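Components:
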Amino acid sequence: MAVSIDPIHQFELQPLVSLGHIGNQQLAFTQSALYMFAAVGIIALLTIVATSGRAVVPGRLQALAETLYEFIADTVHQATGADGKRFLPLVFSLFMFVLILNLLGMIPYAFAVTSHLIVTFGLALVVILTVVIYGVAKHGTHFLGVFVPSGVPKPLLLIMVPIEIVSFLSRPISLSVRLFANILAGHIALKIFAFFVVQLLVAGAWGVLSPLPLALTIALTALEFLVAALQAYVFATLTAVYLADALHPGH
Amino acid sequence: MAEQKNPLTTPSPNADTTIVPPGSPHTHTEQPSGGHGGAFPPFESHTFLSQLIWLALAFGLLYYLMSKVALPRIEAILGERAGRLSSDLNEAQRMKAEADAAGAAYEQSLREAQVKAQAIAQETRNSLSAEADAKRKTLEAELNQRLAASEATIRARTTEAMGNVRTIAGETASAIVERLTGQAPDQASLNRALDATSAVH
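Structure:
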């Protein structure tokens, strides 16, 4: 794998199998798609293969799968109440997908799928469409109550309702941009600081300063691992919060 | 790799460097510029459809696997464990109650046995002492009887002996008087003298 000094280069899509094009859209099985399926494989390994023993006393991997399940189940339960359990597969899938893709992106030379806005936007769209479709199917026009805060005087509603509508519409944007920007910025920062080390080392006497950006790179790596897990958690939690609106529109 | 033109991110009309058919009608304005495509890869809109399709396939597969296989299984495992734990706890509770009941029953029977043993001991003691009393009384009565009989015998012998003494004294007195006077005293005066003497004693 060639190393580029360009911090943006790492986000380029490399087509592995080209599949032609539709209009100006190029279709290809890229490394991004490969990473997505790899993530699905890893998650399946963790949650299906590791639990195939159905042991009452779990092994390590089964204990990990159970811990993740209980963690997300608790999050969903706290946000949506008892009837939010039907959304557990969606929230769990989103959490695991984002988490594993973020963590895969932390492997050196690996590709961070979640650094592409269209991917995170696609995931956010899944969430918002689920909220809207389920909300309308379950509550009909009562679902519009999501835009009307309760206990607000009538004149204020003239201002509040448009604000609520804008805030609702901005949800998929904020959800997707938050994840995308965190991963993108983190990887760019890592690349830049890591490259400083190389630049200082080849700059003669300046090489004595190279441990500074190296230390920073190590610290950033730790931070990025935190961000990778945290953003997955934030994505899952916000999904659960938005889904609570679909279950109980009047708030 | 860095120098290679990327057919997705740096669309090029040159067919020799890309797998994309030449003359593909994309309207990309960026020109390949050596290092990378120049455009910011996440914003290259001509890759969006492809990414969304793969995302839908991958995430759909993941959702299917999670909702149909993984989560029901993990839930079943957790449920089974919770059930096992609570049933084990119930079993332990039941066994403890049984042990407590057995302990109480043991205590109860122990107390009953103690009471019974005390009763038996008391009864035995009573009957034994009654028997001993009876035996003692019989013995005492027998002894008293013998004592009385002995006393009666002694009295009879004494009386007999005293009677003999009178006869001997009379005979002796008569013999003495006969020797002194040469004449035996008559029986009447002898008796008078004997009566007077015994009255003095």
